[in-house]
Amino acid sequence: MQIGIHAFGEKAVTAEGVARAKAIGAEGVCLGVTGVPGTKETGVPPLDGLRDAVHRYHDAGIAVPAGYAGRFSDAMMLGDPACEEEYRRLVETLSRMASVGIRGVLFYTTPERPKDPVEEEQAFERFVAFCNRLGADAEALGIGIACHPWVSRPELIHGYRRLAEVCRRVPHRAMGITYCPGGALAGDDMHAVREQLKERIHFAHLRDQIGLYDNFEEVFPGTGDVGIPTLMRALNASGYDGLLCPEHLGPETPGRDLEAEAVAYAKDLRGS
């Protein structure tokens, strides 16, 4: 398991982003490819610019095993035919990410939950169909889709229950999850999630909190309700060899770099 950080935004693809990652001891980054110049104009990162960004990290001894392709519409995730061009851009982005060695893609599953239970199940069926299609395309490219559920709002994909069903029904192992302890906010047993879906974990987060989704406080890892030390050691022992990135580390404190502290904490848990 590699310990790293999210490298998002325009600075992330520059020497400044590399310097930040190196300064805090990141072994790898989840690279936000939307920061590559030219992406906003076409919706797809130019391959030369993406390759240059990845090489900057590699030259500094920092891996780029994961990436973030940006936000995509709920309509596309629910199979709206009008979103075919958006889907084409997504697949082309995945193709370019795979070509530079990125193997896991953080993918936020954002559709709202319909109020009517019948409509909710219909929406979920459309989402499963979308995941089956995307999983097949991702598998052909050799890249994993790391679906991240809603954890702080009870939308269509709230926690890991629905994503576990997606993984059961979609045969493509490329369609998987981001393993995020934030699932505890939705009432998930994150040990059970790890064991049930360990073959589908393509990316991981490190976070901690107190409470549940309707009333919670984000805190530094190891100081909340989640039981982070046991959880992270078990994830490492399970054979997960991808990237883990800290996030939602609690209120910023003057004089502290919480991200750097979280990277060091995660390395201690894993054993450096």
Describe this structure in words.
The structure is a single chain. The chain has 272 residues and is an alpha/beta fold. It has a single domain, classed as TIM Barrel. Helices cover 41% and strands 19% of the residues. It contains ten helices and ten strands. It has helices spanning 15-23, 39-42, 47-59, 74-77, 84-99, 117-141, 161-169, 190-197, 228-237, 258-270; strands at residues 2-7, 28-32, 63-68, 104-108, 144-148, 175-179, 201-206, 208-212, 215-219, 243-246. Strands 1-2-3-4-5-6-7-10 form an eight-stranded parallel barrel, surrounded by five helices. Strands 8-9 form a two-stranded antiparallel ribbon.
Strand and helix map with partners:
Blueprint: E1 2-7, H1 15-23, E2 28-32, H2 39-42, H3 47-59, E3 63-68, H4 74-77, H5 84-99, E4 104-108, H6 117-141, E5 144-148, H7 161-169, E6 175-179, H8 190-197, E7 201-206, E8 208-212, E9 215-219, H9 228-237, E10 243-246, H10 258-270
Parallel strand pairs: 1-2, 1-10, 2-3, 3-4, 4-5, 5-6, 6-7, 7-10
Antiparallel strand pairs: 8-9
